[in-house]
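Structure (tokenized):
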């Protein structure tokens, strides 16, 4: 299950949000209504924001953090 501050991978292009498959970002907000969705921030190699997008749960896949006990 995807949660706050988790790294996520975009698994399909979402042109309306300017997000493409393969981008990795961090969840900064979780919405439960009207359906589960996530505000995700994407940054460049220097940590500068590229885009912030609201994405559906089926647009994303959790990325393992490498920290035991987390996704």
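Design, position by position:
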């Amino acid at each position: 299950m995807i949660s706050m501050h988790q790294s996520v991978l975009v698994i399909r292009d979402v042109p309306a949000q300017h997000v493409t498959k393969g981008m990795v970002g961090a969840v900064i907000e979780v919405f439960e209504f009207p359906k589960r969705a996530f505000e995700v921030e994407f940054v460049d190699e220097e940590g500068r924001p590229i885009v912030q997008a609201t994405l559906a749960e089926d647009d994303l896949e959790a990325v393992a953090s490498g920290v035991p006990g987390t996704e």
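Reviewer-requested clarification: The two ends are 8 Å apart (CA to CA). The longest strand covers residues 24-31.
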